[in-house]
């Protein structure tokens, strides 16, 4: 694991997302030379992967309470299609 990747894994999600947005803004507004643009793109992709990983991990931890037909409540793991059922 590289030092930057290790450092990212220890940072808060919100901080990673803020840096990712700053990278995107810099690429959209500035006209960096090719090498700087490639470095920024690589950094942005690394940040995007880490953010996506964190979101997937959080999604797996979410538990939904479902009401049964008899009125009782059961706890069930989060499933992607649960949001579509509502």
Nearest-angstrom radius of gyration? 19 Å
Count of DSSP strands: 2
Beta-strand content estimate: 5-15%
Tell me the number of structural domains: 1
Overall mean pLDDT:
83
Indicate the low-confidence ranges by residue numbers. none
Span of the ends, CA to CA: 41 Å
The number of helical elements comes to 4
Shape: elongated
Sequence of strands across the biggest β-sheet: 1-2
The major pleated sheet works out as: 2 strands, antiparallel
Element order: H for helix, E for strand: HHHEEH
Oligomeric composition of the shown chains = single chain
Q: What's this model, at a glance?
A:
The protein is mainly alpha-helical. It has helices at residues 3-10, 13-29, 34-61, 82-85; strands at residues 63-67, 73-77.
